[in-house]
Amino acid sequence: MSYDQFMDQAVSPWMLEDGPDHDIVLSSRVRLARNLADYKFPVIAPSEELNHVKQFIEKEYNQASFNESGPLQFISIQDLSTIEKMVLVEKHLISPLLTKKSDTAASLISQDEQISIMINEEDHLRIQLYYPGFQLQDALNKAFEVDDWLEDKVNYAFDEKRGYLTSCPTNVGTGMRASVMMHLPALVITKQLNRMIPAINHLGVVVRGIYGEGSEALGNLFQISNQITLGKSEKNIIEDLQGVVRQLIEHERHARDKLLKELGTGLEDRIFRSLGVLKYSRIMDTKEMATRLSHVRLGVDLELIDLSRHILTELTVLTQPGFLQYHAQKTLTPRERDVLRASVIRKKLIEA
User: Fold this and answer.
1) Which of 147, 211, 241, 313 is deepest in the core (most CB within 10 A)?
2) Is 282 annotated as a binding residue?
């Protein structure tokens, strides 16, 4: 298996399935931070130690298979071009931070792209599990299985009182971050979400943009995740996060119904106007594209537009700067990207 497959396909195989509440929750993710005992953590470790960790993981796990997910492909970050790194970040298979540690950094990615294990990012290992829709418990169960599978050959840094030891104190304990990606256009349009965020934060849950901490919430997409890892079990963290997400789902559905009743033709005009712009524009920047796709996705969810959600998901990834330049096989100026983005969108929507 070559890493080319991760570059060529905008949509990961698991994204083609419709999970529970998929009209609002696009995906569920569980990430486990782990460090190896007897090694300094990546934030202070010398390159020689980190390269030893990297080489060990490659030897033991490259092409190793985990259940039905298929063989894991070992990818050394230093072997990737700048554009290839951007593509993997845009698919959420690696983090922006990992790309800045090229010499000692690597990743293991399963054939179905449901499992991604980052090596020598902030911690020695960052295990990520993805599921479509609202399936946090299933993601946690599988993450535990992968964690146990890895632990057969490695010894984790663990303290009986503090739990798993990590580079960042906020991850000590379970070392777990659970999150869901939510599409919340109605709560944004009605200006309810900004009023809800302080209350959500008070519950130990944080609302971030599409690429996590420090990123912008483009296209009304928000990452909802836990803040606390110490002093709570994985089960309790998941239960608390599920409670918040269920409330957000309920509020978003209520807001969508209210918008449809109060705005009527006005809401339909906004949705179909965005569809028309996407179909016929010759120039389209990332921010406008995200907004227009959000409107169309809302129209699909409200059964006003007959279009596959998978096409919209594919367009969201396929038209990111890295993907556009990868398929163009050259570096593009912002203007050239905007022109190519509009062309790709037109072609996909015509095919649909």
Assistant:
1) 241
2) no
